[in-house]
Amino acid sequence: MGKVVGDVAFYCGPKTLGAPDNLEEVIVDFIDGAVNRLEIAVQELEHEAIAKAIIRARKRKVTVKIVLEQDYLRSKGIKKDPWTPGGGNESNREIQNALLRSNIDLKMDYNAGIFHQKFIIRDRSAVLTGSTNFTDTGTNNNLNHIVVVHDKLIAKIYSNEFKEIQRGHFGKYNEGHDSHPLDTVVSNVPIRVLFAPDHNPEMEIMKQMLKAQSRIDFAIFTFAKSSGIDDTMIKLLEFGIPIRGALDGLQGRQKWAATDNLIDKGAKLSAVNKGNGLGKLHHKLMVLDDQVVIAGSFNYTGPANMINDENIIILGDFDTKSTRQKRAQTKIAEFARLEIDRIISQHGRVI
């Protein structure tokens, strides 16, 4: 299941739509492995099986701390009878109540934009992150990925970010807490972690793309013309670097999308539309030269870079001189690129 390289694992789902992995199982198993502590930062928690796994952990005396995006918990307007359950997001509120009744420390975000994180730190020794929200749709209907890393330094990086989130130190008005991205190597896989807005992930993605020599493949939910990423792609296309990508069909048709600009310059793009059990193409995934993977929660938009609370995780390093590291990062990159191939072949429509 997934592509596992020592203590680094990459998963793509959902299995019901032809992807290799059951993302619900990956998340539940990760939570069930907790012994002492879980720190969870996620945009939305609406998946009953995941919530039950969290409550099971609490019953095992695991310390559990959670931060959620409040827009999925509050009503859009004032209900005539607010004492009666019902309306939109009621399943989220029912899960919130069950968590609170389980003596779990649960907070809503303080972000004026969007709290868009999707990560768990387990026992301060492992991290789960990626594009997957903890919803039934996120694990079973949307095309998504998960990265799991077993490493104390990576866990510390995310745990420090979680502490900032709990204190409300993130978003547009709380920049500057993390001075620079942090790098390490886990099981011969070079890893770099960045958080928005502190680390300006857009610039990092542009820098990584400029190192590509042979190809760029991506699968992305939202890709706006305001992003510098599309400008970089246009220049690379002019220099002869082939670029191929899959876009969510609805998002890719918006007037602010980068779609037409890229096609005009020669990018090969496919739209992935809803239907037959498929909800959204929800990846935020790029593969460079089958060597470097850029994954995480970050859509290619201005707000994601400047306002939202986000993270990206880069697996691989173009500058490594180690044969072992090149071999390890290639295994993960080829797995991710094959999933992009599959999405385009099975679900895509050439634009």
Give your account of this protein's structure:
This protein has 351 residues and is α+β, with helices and mostly antiparallel strands. It is built from 11 helices and 17 strands. The chain has helices at residues 23-32, 48-59, 90-101, 136-140, 152-166, 201-210, 228-238, 249-252, 259-264, 302-306, 323-347; strands at residues 3-5, 8-13, 37-42, 63-68, 105-108, 118-122, 126-130, 144-150, 182-186, 189-196, 216-220, 243-248, 268-272, 284-288, 292-296, 310-315, 348-350. A 9-stranded mixed β-sheet has the order 9-10-16-15-14-11-12-13-17, sandwiched between helices. The chain has an 8-stranded mixed β-sheet with strand order 1-2-8-7-6-3-4-5, sandwiched between helices. α1 (23-32) runs parallel beside α2 and α6 (201-210) runs parallel beside α7. It is globular. The chain starts with a strand and ends with a strand. The model has no long low-confidence stretch (mean pLDDT 90).
In short, what is this structure?
By secondary structure, the chain is α+β, with helices and mostly antiparallel strands.
